[in-house]
Design brief:
globular; alpha/beta; single chain; Rossmann fold
Amino acid sequence: MRGKGKEDEGHTNKRKFEGKIIVITGASAGIGRQAALDFINKGAGPIILIARSESKLLELKKTIQVVTKSKDAEIVAYTCDISKKEDVLRMGTQMLERFGYIDLLINNAGFGEFGKVENQSIEQIEAVMRTNYFGMVYCTKVFLHSMLSRHSGHIINVASLAASFGVAGMAGYCASKYAMLGFSESLYHELYGTGVRITVVSPIGVKTNFFNNQSFENHQPNYTGFMLEASTVSKAILAAANSSRLEIIVPFYIRAGVWFKHTLPYAINPVAGALFRRQLNKAPK
């Protein structure tokens, strides 16, 4: 019997997600946009692109159709503000009526506000939590039952290293990511033996439009000295879609820092705190 050659293996790898129905929130730019392109390259589809900007979604849809060399590629561009429960319920209901189920839910939408808590309004902090945390909860709830009924599905929540470190100047954002990780861990245990999985992808800083928020206008903090490309995080999302792990930290060696932080907090917290305060103090007053 002839063994698989490199060509066969390459074709198998390329079609790994063939026919998978995928929902990606925050799909119009950055990590979400790259993930959509990468999943298409692996044979996935239909793909449901979710974001607030209709023009950016339609531009991405055209790009995907060029990549797939097909005007008939089943790409759904759905304008939805995931911070609004009614919008998410409407979107989820329509997508389930159209496709019956989804295989992968990528909860990627999110944003941050930079600044001291004393200088931020309650409304600013609430807005971050509504999108980053409650938006993820709304999307999870709207699709979870259909996954459980089929004993199949995977939820991938894109968090951040900020889910493990409280960063000065990013309290609202860190709170939303801590909440995402805690919710995901609890759900991970609940889903044991159901056939449905959940994985959190936690990257360090990423070169995206995250820093376009007005609060970063005069200062873009960099706590690690370098930032990842969106393509690196997208690769981790694709790996997560085939993983049974609860959390994947990107890059992998940063997990050592998380381990030290939890194991030796009395030694790590003062060092991390000094770094975070230095970045915060660089910001214009």
